[in-house]
Amino acid sequence: MAMTSAYPSLCPRPFEYDKSHVVSSDGVQIVVRRWGNRRGPPIIFVHGFAQSGLAFIRQVRDERLAEKYHLITYDLRGHGASDKPLDRNAYHDNRLWAHDLRAVAAAVGAARPILVAWSFGGRVVWDYLKEYGDESLAGAQLVGSSWRRSSEWTSAASAASLPLMLEDDLSTNIAGTIAFLSSCFATPPSPEEFAQMLAYNMTQPPSVRRLIVGRPQQPHDFIASLSLPLAFIVGEKDRHCDPRASRASAEHIRGATFLELPDVGHSPFYEDAPAFNAQLLSFAERVFPRG
After folding, report:
1. DSSP class of 235
2. What is the greatest pairwise CA distance in the chain?
């Protein structure tokens, strides 16, 4: 089903998307949106906590990316327009997040995609690599994300806003979500853009948020065996993922690269879309076979 926004000022043409539903291994329905060149090599975008695939609007609407590549976004389980089961195991079984991603790729015919994962979405990539290995991927980019954890790198921004986001009281929940979103940017988006972001963040009820935040961390005993092209990208002013943690992750993985974008926060793909998209184009041209 082709979809266009009812608010052209926020999501203007020329790009439309095709919307579909994918059923994962446990019956959860995942919403998928397809953009760009359906015949091009695939890039799948994996969003962060409380967000939606719509977070990547500045990538899927980029003319250079859309001309060359099949761009796929989806709403993670418990997020956006996807199903939100009130079952702890639906979020705490790390394999299910991997199954979702594999089901999305299979449904849209995305053979050997690049994965671009933001923040919490990076955990989904690790879940996938743990479950399936890296042979089915062309490469991956981890944005504002790392696998290394340290108390000295704990995010004060998350600690301040997350408890409020878990509250059932609506006004408290909204206040926490506003604080969380605001902390994702060094340069705030426009009021119209921020309103759209707040809207899709608020589609996730606090009951689901409480289930998701407690899910166990995936062990990373498989990292030494990875051979796919892997890039860690972080904003210089990121308040949620310390650039030191991202750099340390890259240094620990053979062949991984690290890029710090200046003057941007936790959302470099949005705050400096031209620079982010240029490096993604360069990465894609390097890892996809020339046809």
Report:
1. E
2. 54
Helices H / strands E in the chain, number of each: 12, 9
pLDDT digits (tens, 9 = 90+) for 268-284: 999 999 999 999 999 99
pTM above 0.90, yes or no: yes
**Angstrom distance (rounded) from CA 13 to CA 8:** 7
Dist CA 251 CA 99 (whole Å): 28
Euclidean distance between the first and the last CA atom of the chain, given in angstroms as a whole number? 29
Angle at the Cα of 62 from the Cα atoms of 56 and 68, rounded to 5 degrees = 110
Reduced to 3 states (helix: H, G, I; strand: E, B; else coil), residue 213 is helix
Domains of the chain by start residue, with CATH:
2-155+216-287 (3.40.50.1820)
Check if the beta carbon of residue 70 is closer than 8 Å to that of residue 44: no
Cβ proximity of 120 and 209 under 8 Å: no
Determine the length of the chain.
Answer: 291
What is the distance between the alpha carbons of residues 231 and 212, in angstroms, rounded to a whole number? 26
Residue numbers of the chain with a pLDDT score lower than 50? 3-8, 12-15, 150-153
